Amino acid sequence: MNDNDFLKPGDTVSSSEKQLMESPEVEAIAKRVIERESLEFGPAAIGYFLVYPNLSKLKAAKCLKASREVKYYSGNDYLIEISGDLWDMLDEKTKEMVLFHQLLHIDPVYKAKNQEWTMKIRKPDFADYYEINDKYGNEWYKTVQATVSSLYDLDPRQESKVSL
Predict the structure, then answer these.
(1) CA atoms of 103 and 115, how far apart (whole Å)
(2) Distance between CA 9 and CA 11 in Å, rounded?
(3) DSSP label at 131?
(4) Which letter does DSSP use for residue 125 in this model?
(5) Which residue from 147, 151, 158, 24 is spatially nearest to 91, judged by alpha carbons?
(6) How many domains does the chain have?
(7) At what angle do helices 139-152 and 92-103 cross, to 10 degrees?
(8) What pTM was estimated for this model as a whole?
(9) Is position 163 within any domain?
(10) pLDDT digit string (tens) for 11-49?
(11) CA-to-CA distance for 56 and 74, rounded, in angstroms?
């Protein structure tokens, strides 16, 4: 097969009206956050994607554990997906906080008995992760909700339901 028969990083894959795109920008910001916050993920590999126009009008971002098949074909243990229209509207600091929140979902656990890693997803503490609220507050979260609300003309009740 020719080289151009395969997807390369940055290529897009379209399914219905949603477009999934690997994002070197998101990955670069995530690496900065991982280093700054001293996050440790063992051998876990993470894929970073933007979904255009969005994941949904009320879901700004999500972190998924890769299925066995996705892991086999991509090498990723986890996937972080962010609504592309939202991402394009956020300032740098808020982008970092969205990624920090998503990275905190990643929870690889080493099982000494079997000498192997188990990839798990961590649920947020009350309302959000205490690590973020204690250190940075929650103004960034309100920024995400307000930005999504303005993008999709949501009413105040819907705005409060926008989640990560």
Answers:
(1) 24
(2) 6
(3) H
(4) S
(5) 147
(6) 1
(7) 110
(8) 0.85
(9) no
(10) 555 556 899 999 999 999 999 999 999 999 999 999 999
(11) 24
